[in-house]
Design a protein that fits this description.
The complex is a heterodimer of chains A (234) and B (611).
Chain A lengths: L2 H23 L7 H37 L1 H19 L11 H33 L3 H7 L3 H21 L5 E3 L2 E4 L2 H48 L3
Antiparallel strand pairs in A: 1-2
Chain B lengths: L3 E2 L6 E2 L18 H5 L15 H6 L2 H15 L17 H15 L8 H8 L5 H6 L9 H7 L7 H4 L6 H6 L1 H11 L6 H13 L2 H7 L6 H11 L5 H11 L33 H4 L14 H18 L10 H25 L11 H11 L6 E7 L5 H18 L2 E6 L4 H16 L9 E6 L6 H7 L1 H4 L26 E6 L2 H11 L8 E5 L4 H8 L8 E4 H12 L4 H33 L12
Parallel strand pairs in B: 3-4, 3-6, 4-5, 6-7, 7-8
Antiparallel strand pairs in B: 1-2
Helix pairs in contact in B: 3-4, 4-7, 5-13, 17-26, 18-19, 18-25, 19-20, 19-25, 19-26, 25-26
Classes of the chains: A mainly alpha (234), B alpha/beta (611).
């Protein structure tokens, strides 16, 4: 394929991308057929690519390649995963779906163990230590900064953590005069935690807006670049 | 096999057994004569042709009476049997009147009418049908005939005291009543049968008549006769009459079960008996017991309201066309045009020429970590974002990737999303093209592709990346390069760069790599929307990340600090103007809404005025 054809293909691809971009942006006027067509096309392309990727990156190199290279040794490696995979395919049948339960149980058990273990060692314990160690005066002294602002910052972080956790404490005792209600001190602490939660949600919302603005700027840059290219102004 | 069901417990039994094998209840009746009269016991219609067996079973005195009556009809001149010679315990009055009875029954006498009925006939209130029904069976010796054969003064006291005659005396003399009862229950003589029937006719007890198998036709006339003749009836009998005189209300049809004749057990042949079988044997459907909670009216009202709400939730509601649809579309288009104009204006006119000058600690730490890399150091780049976030992630990671290429790091790309491999390929090619690097695949970088198994695949990949992903996305051997020849696990990489727009996915990678990769080897480039969550990992003590670059803002700072302008700085002006426009729009919209709320009165009805 010559370079000219390559350039034409690239240019056609760019134009097609611009057309798709305009169709997607036209969703601001409301849902319409072209928008759905583009979205369906994107979903189909992604699914097709996923199938190709799964075969090319997983099934062939991890299942067929060992058997091709060394059938006797390969069957020892891929035998058990192959059996589990075949059993999992029985889930497609309503009658024989019971045979797929061992594979599903294996996946569920391993997945839960990995997630729980990782959450404990990667998030829960380190974050608890982080809150506690924020008041470590020796570590604060090692940073060389003033202790007071650091202690204030650590206190705010501690208050936010405790207050936020108190907000999610829903235990209450029944009262004779009315419905069940949390203790007053817990209610107050929960109200403070609610403020921290609102600030965090606002921060996340601002981040989503920033991400959206960035995408809009990138698409605007793409369209302007095409227009300027077509007009020969660039 | 024929079985016989026990009337008591309902269990089936073999036909030959006499008692139930389950409850020991008797299955066969004790009296053999009941079997010979399947239509039921009929003491009143025992004909002379009742059979020899009947004659053998009946008492001697009754047989003698029957034979005597028959002989008296056939041979009126024959001498009567000597009742006195019989050794039966007949009442004295019967023994005394036996001779007279013999003579009277031999004649063709007119039907004997009891005295109390005669008095009714004289008044012409009783029809002939009633009288015929009140006749006793001809086969039995007529008490009337006995009565007729006796002298009036020879009647026993109990007979004289029957209704219509000497009721007052009968009521007064308890001895006579006791005597009557004693004679009735001796079971010796059938006179009580006739007397009993007469009483039944007088009283009008329909149920007694039905038990005796008599017809109840002509009941009103009979009752009328009794009314007239019953002025002297006892109080309890008068009460019954008054009850009968009441206008009858139409009764519901009697179930057919009540008219059935018992076909087994000791009650064999009787009609209209109560069922003796247990409820289990009747195989009735269990009664549906409605469980009702002990709740107060207020609780019940609340429960009803809650149920009503649930039911209303399931009901489809027509969507009324909103009046504000078109203005919303207009507002939406207007907002889009404003924001797009801001972005285009920022790109075209470059209103903010100065790059961001602020210092970001996360960016600074990231630059330090990259600067410490040795040339051609093996660097793992995890690209875990979707295609829709490519714009922001490219702007965020451009300076970082450019810096890695400046250092000449050997890049190994991997992803846990299906499209992540494509994004990695596009990222490295774009950065290489725009920044002027000539990074070549397999020579300077390799794309391992997709890690299967999600979160469970990460620990395996961290322990043995060669076995999990032995080939590149193009099917080439991935681990043949000299820069990664010594890499046996993820911890052997000089640096691990995680690029993700999703905080959950980034957290998953951090958690799984926590024990495999040192924190000082892990840097993070995330979207602005994931920064609030991921910053906690960076600012923790001790740190779980070495560096953090977030969003286009972080990328622009990185490029500024590195002195190599890239995509982030190219977008910076437009981005700043768009963010400013967005902020202004939000403030203006909020202010306008506040004004509208203050000026326009609320259209909602007040709570107190709600119906």
């Amino acid at each position: 394929m010559s370079a000219e054809w390559t350039n034409w293909l690239d240019f056609g691809g760019v134009l097609f991308g611009a057309l798709l971009t305009l169709i997607v942006l036209s969703y601001v006027l409301g849902d319409h057929f072209l928008f759905r067509l583009v979205i369906y096309g994107f979903i189909g392309v992604a699914a097709g690519f996923g199938v190709i990727l799964a075969f090319n990156s997983v099934i062939y190199p991890l299942l067929f390649q060992p058997l091709i290279d060394d059938p006797f040794g390969g069957i020892q490696i891929v035998g058990l995963p192959l059996v589990f995979s075949l059993l999992l395919m029985f889930k497609l049948s309503r009658r024989w779906s019971l045979l797929g339960n061992p594979s599903l149980a294996f996946l569920t058990g391993v997945g839960a163990a990995v997630l729980i273990g990782g959450a404990l060692q990667g998030t829960l314990f380190p974050q608890l230590l982080a809150v506690i160690n924020s008041f470590d005066t020796r570590a604060l002294a090692a940073t060389g900064g003033s202790k007071i602002p650091m202690l204030v910052e650590a206190g705010v972080a501690l208050l936010g953590t405790v207050a936020t956790l108190a907000y999610f404490h829903f235990g209450a005792r029944p009262q004779a005069s009315g419905p069940a209600k949390r203790p007053e001190w817990l209610e107050s602490l929960g109200w403070i935690g609610q403020m921290f939660i609102a600030i965090a949600l606002g921060l996340i919302y601002a981040g989503i807006l920033r991400a959206g603005y960035t995408a809009l700027v990138e698409r605007a840059h793409f369209l302007i670049d095409i227009v300027t290219s077509l007009l020969g102004a660039k | 096999m024929e079985t016989r069901r026990c009337p008591m417990c309902g269990q089936p039994n073999p036909p030959e057994v006499e008692t139930c094998v389950y409850c020991q209840a008797r299955l066969k009746p004790l009296w053999e004569e009941e079997e010979t009269s399947p239509e039921g016991l009929d003491f009143f219609s025992s004909s002379p042709a009742g059979g020899v067996a009947d004659d053998q079973e009946i008492p001697e005195w009754l047989r003698s009476l029957r034979t005597g009556g028959e002989k008296a009809e056939e041979e009126p001149e024959e001498s009567p049997p000597d009742f006195e010679a019989e050794e039966f315990e007949l009442p004295e009055w019967m023994l005394e009147g036996g001779e007279e009875e013999k003579h009277e029954t031999s004649e063709e006498a007119p039907p004997v009418v009891p005295p109390f009925v005669e008095s009714v006939e004289d008044e012409e209130t009783v029809s002939e049908e009633i009288w015929e029904e009140s006749q006793p069976p001809e086969s039995l010796p007529m008490p009337g005939s006995l009565e007729e054969g006796m002298e009036e003064e020879e009647f026993p006291k109990w007979l004289e005291s029957l209704p219509g005659q000497e009721w007052e005396e009968w009521q007064e003399t308890g001895e006579a009543e006791a005597k009557v009862e004693e004679e009735l229950y001796t079971g010796a003589v059938p006179p009580f049968i006739s007397v009993d029937e007469s009483l039944l006719e007088e009283v009008g007890e329909e149920w007694l008549n039905e038990t005796a198998g008599l017809s109840t036709e002509g009941q009103p006339e009979e009752t009328k006769a009794v009314e007239e003749a019953g002025e002297e009836l006892p109080a309890w009998l008068s009460e019954i009459q008054r009850e009968e005189k009441k206008p009858e209300t139409p009764l519901p049809p009697t179930p057919s079960v009540e008219k059935k004749v018992e076909t087994a057990g000791p009650l064999y042949g009787l009609r209209d008996i109560l069922p003796a079988e247990p409820l289990v044997a009747q195989q009735k459907a269990p009664v549906n017991v409605i469980a009702q909670l002990m709740v107060s009216e207020k609780q019940q009202a609340q429960a009803d309201l809650f149920l009503q709400l649930i039911q209303q939730e399931g009901m489809p509601k027509p969507i009324s066309p909103s009046k504000g649809v078109k203005p919303q579309v207009l507002w939406r288009v207007l907002l889009f045009l404003v924001l797009f104009a801001a972005a285009a204006g920022g790109l075209l006119f470059n209103p903010f020429p100065s790059p961001p000058q602020e210092l970001n600690v996360g960016v600074f730490d990231t630059m330090q970590a990259i600067s410490q890399l040795s040339p051609r150091a093996a660097t793992l780049v995890i690209v875990d974002y979707e295609a829709g976030d490519f714009a922001e992630m490219q702007a965020t990671a451009y300076g970082l990737m450019d810096q890695l290429m400046v250092k000449g790091a050997y890049l190994v790309f991997v992803s846990t999303t299906s499209t992540g491999a494509l994004q990695a390929d596009r990222l490295v090619r774009e950065v290489s093209r725009l920044s002027g690097h000539k990074y070549m695949e397999l020579t300077d970088w390799v794309n391992l592709g997709y890690i299967p198994g999600g979160a469970a695949g990460i620990p395996i990949f961290a322990l043995s990346p060669r076995s999990v992903l032995p080939f590149s996305i193009d099917g080439q051997p991935a681990w043949s390069a000299a820069e990664i020849a010594s890499v046996q696990k993820v911890g052997d990489f000089s640096l691990v760069v995680l690029l993700s727009e999703n905080s959950n996915r980034a957290r998953m990678w951090i958690e799984q790599l926590q024990r495999q990769v040192d924190a000082n080897k892990l840097i993070l480039g995330v979207s602005a929307q994931a920064e609030p969550v991921m910053r906690a990992y960076y600012e923790a003590t001790p740190r779980q990340l070495q560096g953090l670059v977030s969003g286009l803002n972080g990328g622009a700072i990185f490029e500024t600090q590195a002195g190599r302008p890239g995509i982030a700085l190219q977008y910076w002006n437009a981005y700043s103007l768009t963010v400013t426009s967005g902020v202004i729009l939000i403030l203006m919209g909020s202010f306008i809404n506040i004004l509208i709320a203050l000026v326009r009165p609320s259209s909602r009805p007040e709570r107190g005025k709600r119906a």
